[in-house]
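Thread: "does anyone have the structure for this chain?"

Original post by V.I.:
We have the sequence but no experimental structure in hand. Need at least a predicted one for the grant figures.
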Amino acid sequence: MNEIHSTAIIEGNVSMGENNKILPYTILLGPLIIGDNNIIGPSVVIGSPGQDTRNPRHDYSNRQIVIGSNNIIREFSAIQKPVYEDVTSIGNKVYLMQSVHIPHDAIISDRVVITPMVVLAGLARVLDGANLSLGVTVHQHCVIGHYSIVGMGSSVLKNVKPFSRLVPGKPLSVNYYSIEKYGYTDFADEIAEYVTADKHPESETLKNIVKEFELLHVRSGRDIY
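Reply from O.Q.:
Generated one for you, tokens below.
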């Protein structure tokens, strides 16, 4: 059973799993798929049209958003429908804090944390376990690598390596906090060489992470920090 506040507005084809809480004044516009155990709201808008200057009045009626399970999406956040690709998606165990902007065609992977007032531009990719700090802005097509962190107030114009720590005005460094948090301590030296010296890892665990990131990096057409 889901707990849906009487002031919430749900329109169109909205499919929802179990044990979701839809809080006051939240708006859900289909096509929309939502998993289980999510907390959404208050005053969240999911399913508004992607903001596209080429065609600001495009037909978005059949554009889909997919949201996984065990997510928290806090007040005044917005998740917009895709424009150029098939879906805008949020993975599992994602924490979107207050006033986060998820744009058209964005893909947010599992265990991502996006803190208040963060703004992503269209077609951004934020990969597993990444953390975007207060007030970060991310350029179109940018890829934020797995388990990386971007320091508050950063303007991200390039792709961010997995396990890295991007702080304005400082050299790229290693995000040791995520290495410990997500159980990669045994690979710390290998990760450090990858982040700081561009030496590709040899362990299969890290190879798979880097392979996914680099595939998206090439597709993005962006430079890399």
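V.I.: this helps a lot. The mean pLDDT is 97.
O.Q.: and The domain at 3-220 is CATH 2.160.10.10 (UDP N-Acetylglucosamine Acyltransferase; domain 1).
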